[in-house]
Structures are given as structure tokens and as C-alpha cells.
Amino acid sequence: MVEVLGPLSARPPTPPRTSSRMLSENDRTDDSPVVVHTPRDSPFSVNGSTGAPSSRQSKRVNFSPWTRYIKPPSFTNSAAKSKSDLKSLPPSNECKPTKSILKPTTSHSATNSPSAEPQAPVSFAMLLESILQQLAGEAVSSRLDAYMQFFGALRAYDNLPGDQEIIARLGLITQFIHRDVSRDLTTGGPLHTNLVIQALKLAVALVWHSEISARLPDDFKTFLVDHSVNCLQDVKMPKSVVTHYLSVLSTQNFNAKVMTNTRIIRILTVLHELTNRVTGSAIVSQRLSIYLRVLNQSKMIFVSNASLWMDHLISGLLHHVKDIRIKAISVGFQTAIACGPNPTLSKCVREVFSRPLDERRKLVTEVCERMTRMMALSDCGVHIPQIWSVIILLLRSKKFNVDQWEHFKEWVLVLQRCFNCSDSAIKAQAIVGWNRFVYVVSPSDTTSPSLLRMLSKPIVSQFDRKKQDKQPSQLALCSYYNLLYYAFRPSASFQHLDVVWEEYVASPASSIFSSVPSLSDRVAHVLSNMLWSPQAKVWLENKVNESNKLDPEELPSIDSRWIRSRITSVLNVFEDIFKSSVWNPDIERSNIATAWIGLSKALSHASSKEITPTPESMQAVAHVLGLLQRLWNAGPSSLNAAIEEDSTDAFYDRFSFLSTTMIYSLGSARFTEKLLLKTADETFQAATTPTHRHQKANTSLDSPILHFLRFISELPGHSGPSPSYSRLVTSVLEATCSDKLSRSSRLEFFSQCADIHVFDAAAHIGDDSLAETVWRSVAQLSASSLSSFPMETARERDGSVCRDYENIVNILSAGLKFSDVFEVWNPLVDSLIRVVRTEKGDRAISTMAMEPLAASIIEQGTRDTCKPSASLLKLSLSVPYGHEAETAKGTHEMAFPHKLIELVDKTLRQSYESFDPVEPNGIADFIECLTSLLGSGVPTFRTAVLTHLQQSLAFYLKDGERKINAESGVESRILTAVSVRSKGLVLRTNLELVSRAVVSRLEHLASSTTSRRLLCTKFRAYNLFGS
């Protein structure tokens, strides 16, 4: 029932038209109002010009009830305005009322008065009251003006200031709308039709406003929906009115109480048949909008009645109007995303495309041909890949694989043409469409091998087309990342990972990726994120539909157990991309370095719960060692170091990084405590034998680190030792013993590393041998460990500390294979003596250091022992030889260096046999040190030494083979050592030695001056012995 508002005037004044007061562009100032642009989906901009013909011209309300109002131009003096600015008045018969409902009619101040002020605008409440009075009237024209004024006010202001006033009067407003839209248009004229249109426009505006719509009575909402459906079914309803009823249904967002399943089915049914009665682009566009609204309100009903709208959706996708195509693409895309894999939608799409057109053709053929023709049009081509992907998304079903569709190949050919076209925009959209196709396929164990292979071809082809001197396009890279994102989903089985790794990573890495450095670097970035992540990543099924951009950091991480079990395949990829890898000066900041670190961390994580290394872990170590050996054998080119200015140093530095990174991550136990078997084809495999080292002759079975040191010191293709090579060896050794916290464990390890080669007992290695550098590093680290790590108390009690001294002796003995290492060898011996003196005392130096070392030198059978013997003799000067020591039985025995003297005896004999006056090989130093030793110690000790050396000293004194000429001066040094320092018993004991040597020498003396001088020297020595 209409509310009574009291006596109303026949009609309030109508505001002047906007055009009559609008300023020209030249007259517009900064204070002039700006044209309001409403949102695209706003009902205020929909069908604004649509309506039935009317004899009345529409009027616009130009009001502003708030402080921001339209400021009229002011003039200080009417005379100041030139006559040229004055506009001529129209004829009186064309004049319209100039009084506005916003201004009082009782008083008017002159416009040309200097004191005239702009009048305050009337409040929105007054406007609303005036509009309601008009709507309550009987005159159709008055109601029409009221609706237009109301709608104009709502359109002019986005943030409605009078929403509370409107809400308070909604009951009355909805009654007026209900009254006017229910009018029978068959009996009224154009004016009545326009009244219904304006009432519907106001209804749409109220429904669109969220706050007002929430306060609308449910019965009014129900009326709007039911009445709209009824009118759409009316074949006599004018098209102009039908459009606004469609606008009501597309704008509404009513709750389920109003939008029941029955009403939704009625809406879908009437829309399905609507274009049979009413045609036009506006009808098609509004219908698509309603579909989207219904989808959001009742997805289940919308999907179950797909047959009512699928034809219209496909028709909209192929529509000749661009805006309709775009809206259809949006509707199809949102439907596919909201519904997911749906058998109903999939079946419906297949049924529509399989619909026969004639005896030989089906609808799918016509659609494909039309899409091909549209591709050539400038405003249509870019939409073809989008249309293609919408259909692909709708075809998804858990019970139906898209490649099983009978028209699949025909449909894929459409996108193939998009990839092959010359338009870059179309190709870009084709890549996006292919990404969604990958999402639809969702590679898994059930995906056919042929389809898995097909998924990567368009993506890899984008890289093939690029020149090697250009960077790959970001869109193509994102497409590759998208393929990996869905192929390596976290729930994938190991068998599936095997297939996709080979197809999407290994195969491209061995071809296109390994030939282009920029691509190789991007693959390295991918691997760094897929092989390891410090924390779990969130994997989203709908990722491709959220954004076209996918970063490598978002890629899922592969199970570390799979990485370890398939380490061979993983390392093959690294070996391929290493050839064209990009390395920064700061190696660890390179993508390839980050990828290698990720691999090492993955292997470490897979073995993190192992107490002792398992066969699986050792097999992984074996494969890593095999890769390092292949890289070493290939040289700088294997790590893309050949392009560097100093290729060898760059190679050594990069190789050092790879080696030490893996050792640090996996731990030294896997490189030192287990054995690997080197096979005949130069590969390694985990050994099943006990974890102890076999005989030195068997180098095939050894610890990984010894295999490593062996192959980096044997290869003749590499240049000689360099600082970078020394850094490589030292860094590897330091990494291997980094978690060895005791002196004994470190020295035990260094002892093994010192003797990595098996040589002939008397053989020497050249000065430029890489093996010598390995030994030097071992010796230097051993000396550091010996002095830096204190002896453990427990080990001192059980006597095992002696094992440390034995290991040092072994290291020193191994160094004798090299000809020029004594600048490292001597400090290590000195360190050993200092440690023994500190831990065991002076008397233990001989038994724990000197004697074992001399015995080891003797056992080695080294030919040139002058230098080591000289070193031992020099260091022996500080040892208190000759002093008595109490034995375990309580007796006193003199500490005598039997092995050292035996070594001196052997050295004297061999040095005489191999004596060369041109290259004395340290004989002079040896003689000097022996002389110093013979001059030290107590007489008892010297007597014992001379007793043991009389045979070997005789070789030099007798010189039966005439090897020692007069210029060498060796004889005089020996005689000095024997004669000057000898007294008492020593003289008598060695009388036979000297006399035999002198007699033998006298028989062969020459007549030269030098010989006579030597003879005198010998006689003086004899006189000393005899006096």
C-alpha cells in the first residue's frame, strides 16, 4: 500500500539541463567539477542511452548537498563582462523552467550584484523527500523525472552520502518500483515503457550498492527475480526492457533464500531460449554476465545444467564482437577454475564438439577452422590461444585423460599454428595456453609416455629458436619452470621422477642447455632450488592460473632419498652443464656453485640418520668420485675454464670448490673410514669387504680420499705444481680432517695420504711431480697438527701416543721418494723431536724418533740417503747419546743409535760407490754432520761409533777406485773427524783403520804438489794416532 505523504504540489520545479549550465573547455577552471567515471561494471553506465522513444527530453539534476559543490562563476562588476561573452536568449517558446528544486523559490538575488554569494546546497534528505513526493504522484511524467533524478544522483556520487536516508525509506522506494515495473506495457505507450526502464535502472542501482542491497526486503528481491524471469519469457516484451531485466539478474547477489535452486534453473532455462526471441550483442553480453553470477551463487546447479549454457559459452568465445569474446573467455576460465576437473562439464564439451553438422563434418572441425581464420585478424588473433585453453580447462576430468579425446590431435593443431605464426603477441599467449595445458595434463604415473614427451617440445623449441648470443625470453623460461612445477609435484613417485627427470632435465641438459651458457646458468638456478630447500615449500595445484610468472624459487624440492638413489642421473646433468657453466669471481655466488651445494646438502640429508655410512651412502660417494675423476681427466674445458685468461688456475679453484664442498657436507667418515673399489673401466663402486686397508700393492681397494689424491697426482696431462694446485690439495686435506678433533686421528689420516703411490723401492719421482705437492701439503699439515693438538691424557696412560710418532715417521719416510723436499722434511723432523722431548723426555728421542726413522730409511732401500742422513745427524747433536739409562731389570745400559749408525754406514758405502765430483748430492753436508757427531758425546759413545763405521770409513780413506780426487777435500774432513777429536781408547781402536788406509794410499800417491800436501796431512794423522 502506498504511503500517504500529504498534499503535494502538482510538480516541483525541474532543474535546468546540464548542457545549459555547462562551461566550455575554455571557461573551465581548476574548481570546475571533473566528469565522474564510474566503474565498468557499475549499473550506472549500463544501457544509459537505451530506452523507448519519448516526447520528453530527459533532464539531469545538477545538485551538490555537501561542501564540494559546483562553484558558479562570479563577477565583481557586471560591466566588466564584455558584451561578446553574453549569450543571446532563445525564443520564449523554447525556454525551459530555470527554477531548480535545489534552490528556494521565495527569493532571488540578482546575479549581477557585487555582493551576491553562492547559496548553500540543499541537503540530500530534502532531495529524497522531493523525489518521493513525485513518485507518489499520479502523473507518469512526474514519476519519470523522479526516477531520472534519483538515478542521476546515485550515478554522480560513488560514495553515496545519503545512504542512511535511502535505507530509512527503502520500504517506500521499493513499493514505488514494484508498482511501476508491474505496469502492463501492452496498453501503455512509449512513455510508460520509459517509466518501466527508469524504474528498473533505479532498482539495479539499489541492488548494486552493497549496503543498500543488504537492507532490501526479501520479498522485494524475490519479486525482482521472479518478475524478471517472467518478463524474459514474454515474447511481446520490448528488447529495450528485456536488456534491463537481464541487468537486474546479472547485478543481483542475493542469498540462497532468494536464489533457490528452482529459480536458478528457471533463469538458465529462460536464458537458453532467449536469443530465439531477442537478438543483439547486448543480450549476449548480459547473458554471459548472468552465467558468471549464477556460477558464484550455486556452482552445483550451474554445472549440473551445463547443457543449458555450454552452447552459448562456446558461441560467445567465437563471437565477432571483441568485448563479448573477452567476457566469454572470462566466464569459461572462471568456470573451469571454480569447478576443477568435472566429468559433467567435460562430457558436455565433448558432446557439443562432436555434434554433426553434416554427414562428414562435426562442430569441432568448424570451430577449429573458424579459430584459424580468426587468427589472421588483428583484434582476434591474440584471443585464439585463450579460447583454446578455456576449452582444454573445461575438458578436465579425473576419469578422462584429455589425450584420449577423439579430437585431441585436431585441437592441438590449432595451438601449434599459434606457435608457428609470426605475431609475437599470439605466440606469447600460446605459451600461456600451453602452460595451462600442462596443468590440465598434470604429469603423473598414468600419463602416457608420448604425451609426456609432447609437453616439453613446444617449450624447448622456444630455446632452439633463440640465437646463442641472446638471452632466453622470460616467458619461455617461465613456461619451462611451469612444466617442472607440475612434473615434480611433491607427491610424485620415484618411478615418475625417473621419467620426468630424464625427459625434462637430463635430455635438454645434454643438448641445448649445455651449448648455451645463459641457458646453462638458468638450469643451474633451477637445480639449486629443486635439489635442496632449507624448509618445506607450499605447492599449489592452481599455481598456473594465479600468475603467468613463476620463479625458480617456487619450484618444489625433490626427495633427497631419490636424489641419492639416482645420483648417477643427477651427476650426468651436472657434467653436461659444467661444460658451459657461468662462474663468478666469487665462486660460491655462482648459480652452478649453489646447485652443487644443494646437491651436497641433499646427499647429506639423505644420510643424516646413519650412525655409520651405509652401502647406499658409499655408492653415492663412489659416483661423485667418478665424476670428479672425469672432470680432472678432461681438464679446464670440463668446467668451462678454458675461456679464462689463466685457465689452469681457474680450473684448479673450481675443482677445489667442488671437492671440498662435497667433503664438508658428507663428512670425512665417508671419505676415510670406508673403502671403494676402483674397477677396470676407471669407475668406483662401494666395497663389500672389511673396512681396513690391504697391502700397498693393491691400490684398487682404498678409501675415497686416497683414490682422489691418487688421480689428481698421477695425470701427466696437467701442468706442473702451482700455487693454485697447492691450494687445491691443502683445502681437500683440511676439509677431510675438519671433523677429526684428535691429534691421533689426524696423524693417522695424514700417514695414509703421504704414501698414496706404490713405487720401486729405490725409485725417485721427478721434481715437477704433482705427487710431490701432495706430500708437501701432508707434511706441513702434519707438522701443524703435531704441535697444535696436545696429547690426550688417556692415550698417554695406555701408551698409544707412540702411534703418533710412528705416523710421523711414516710420513717422513714417504717424502724420501722425492728429490727436493727437505725444506719441508727437516722442519717436520724437528717438530717430531720437540714433541717427543716435551712429552717423553730427551732420552726418548733416540728410541721413538731417530731410530725408527733411520730404520724406515734403511728398509725403503733409498739410493740417495745423504740428505736425510745429514738431517738426522744434525738433529742428533742435541740428543744425549752415551749416557747410561736404567733398564726395566734395574741394570744400566748406554743408549746407542744402532739404526742411525747403520744408516750412516750404509750412506758412506753407497755415497762412495755413486760418488760424482760434479754432483756430490749432499755428500759434503753429510760428512760435515758426521764430523760434528763424532766430535760430540762421551768418549765411550764415540768409540762405539767409530767401531761400527770403520769399514765404511775405510772406503773413503783407502779410495781404492780413485773416485775421490785431491780437489774434493773429502779425505781431509774424514781424517780431521777421526784424528783431531780422538783420544785414548779411540786412538788404539782405530789404529788399524787409519794405518791400512795410509799404507794403501801411499802406494798410489802422485808427485803433484797437492798430493804431497795430502800425504803430509795423512802422516800427521798417523803421528797423532801413534803418539
TrEMBL record:
Keywords: Cell cycle, Chromosome, Nucleus, Telomere. GO terms for biological process: telomere maintenance. It is found in: Chromosome, Telomere; Nucleus. Its main location: nucleus. GO terms for cellular component: chromosome, telomeric repeat region; nucleus. Residues 135-505 form the Telomere-associated protein Rif1 N-terminal domain. It holds the Pfam family Rif1_N. Residues 44-65, 103-116 have a biased composition (Polar residues). Residues 1-118 are annotated as: Disordered. PANTHER family: TELOMERE-ASSOCIATED PROTEIN RIF1 (PTHR22928:SF3). This is Telomere-associated protein Rif1 N-terminal domain-containing protein. It comes from Aspergillus tubingensis (strain CBS 134.48). The lineage of its organism: Eukaryota, Fungi, Dikarya, Ascomycota, Pezizomycotina.
